[in-house]
Design goal:
This protein is α/β, with parallel strands linked by helices. The protein is 39% helix and 20% strand. The chain has a seven-stranded mixed β-sheet with strand order 9-8-11-10-12-13-14, with helices on both faces. The protein has a five-stranded parallel β-sheet with strand order 2-1-5-6-7, with helices on both faces. Strands 15, 16, 17, 18 and 19 form a five-stranded parallel β-sheet that branches.
Length: 627
Amino acid sequence: MKSANFSKLEHLLNPESVAVYGVSRTPGKVGHEIFANLVKGKFSGELIPVNPSADEVLGVPCVSSLRTSGHKVDLSVIAVPMEYVHQAIEDSLAAGVKAVTVITAGFKEVDKEGAKREAELVQLCHTRGVRMLGPNCLGIINTHHRLNASFAKHMPAQGGISVLSQSGALCTSILDWAAARHVGLAKLVSIGNKADLSEIDLLQALAQDEFTKVIVCYLESIDSGDAFVKAAEAAADLKPVVVFKAGTTAEGVKAASSHTGSLAGADIAYGAAFKRAGVIRADNFESLLDYAMALSMQPLPRGERVAIITNAGGPGIMATDAVVHHGLKLASLGHFTATSLKNDLPRAASVGNPIDVLGDADPERYATAIKSALDDDEVDAVFVILTPQAMTHPAETAKAIAGCVRKDKPILASFMGGLDVEPARNELMASNLPDFPSPERVVAAFRAMCDYAAWNRRPPRIVTRFPVNRHRVERVIHRYTRGGLSEIGEVDAKAILRAYDMRVPPGHLAVDPEEAIATAERVGYPVAMKIVSPDIIHKTDVGGVRINLNSPQEVRDSFELMMLRIPRRIPNANLVGVYVEKMCPRGREVILGMSRDPQFGPMLMFGLGGILVEVMKDVTFHLAPIT
């Protein structure tokens, strides 16, 4: 039984009948290729080509208009020239169509007039309660329903990976990759301009889809940040969600805008949103596919301890470096495992970790090492590396590895090379064993598996609420905004922190040496002194910070020295005074900040503070509220 979210898009993703507008008898035309794919894919439902100038296409009778044909249609696929799209949708709606996909380009991605036309299409569909996919998209594929309503070249094999993509071209690249690597897909949806249906709607639907095991997304923009986080988090609670977000640079943002007419947004905010939602972020197209493959083929690990089995030292070192780089752990093999390996492997073999089975390792030797590692309670996953040498038998070794597969621990392989290992790679993939070109990519994919496994084990998120003196905060903020100031000084910033019940050292603003000394006497020595000026942000750079002042004379001298030297360095700076506060015991300096992202809302920054904050940039960002 499908959820309400899936059933809302049932007619789009799982239609019983499909009409195609713009069907041509000329191969190479978009409409012809879409209809040919439906026919060649052996779609089990009814197909209706709409073409007033033809009697039939590919042996299927045409209709000149859907509204007069008497057909009951779930999905209408529109591939007519841009100026006829509105008319085609009107005809579809008059016939009672339940969902519409607009393949045609030439709308929001082109200009303002195109955006206006696009909005009119959405409004037209909504008058009948119909949802629209596109425009400017490749179409839809549902392998388990034999539906290929796209102009992609091939129908992929059935599998568990579902793809959402804002780029139709990347859809075709993924399809070609899947065919070459023998990877099966469940569904592929090109969302195009997202005029109506977006990644949010499709995430909700695919989260409930029984055939989808992993959701893969290529996105250039997200239109509703809060709704995306909620939808992605709900989906990630059920299955892995992997996202490659393009448009991470200013130039990339500009290119994304011209591609689909969408704004890409701040990359830091996207990272925080993905973290909150449990989304696995891929930094590039290659990683997107690697992560999807690993997550869909192998069980999730219980921990991060890996055993590396290799027939060559160099690749073992490469894998070891990558394990450390990704924050994973080399498993410490148990005494029984080490003893078994020592007895079963040649004397020259290394029985540490990596386990080097030597260049002449036959399939049986590989299988022996793998089984020993899998039986060790200290091992959470096994990486198997093979380099093609004169003595190796890659295809037979792949079969032997497949015989070692277990349901509780993942095995990931890297058969390095090309021609000599290609049959072996096919054997591995046919056995649901993911194979990667290099050890580094094995490790990166396993890191993604660990991250998702950790997400599944996370404790409930409980947000603690505390009293806030909102009146005091609003009073400070109002004073600054009324004066046209955009940055709050230290004195008022600490007043805001106190209003939020955060502990800060006792201190006070002083405008002359006597007031500074009086404050120091009141809070107790030693004290720190910092210049207060709306024109000075980095106080240390101009000599505006003195610490560990232990006497009235030191306070006086520091005050007078600041007032003498700082005007020479910044002649026009407005020096309000100094802030004198109690020195704290030595601790860890941190930086805490907040900004409001236009898409995702309040975002907190936390990390290493102090004078090197700009250099180290050791900070993390999270969407509020945090636990």
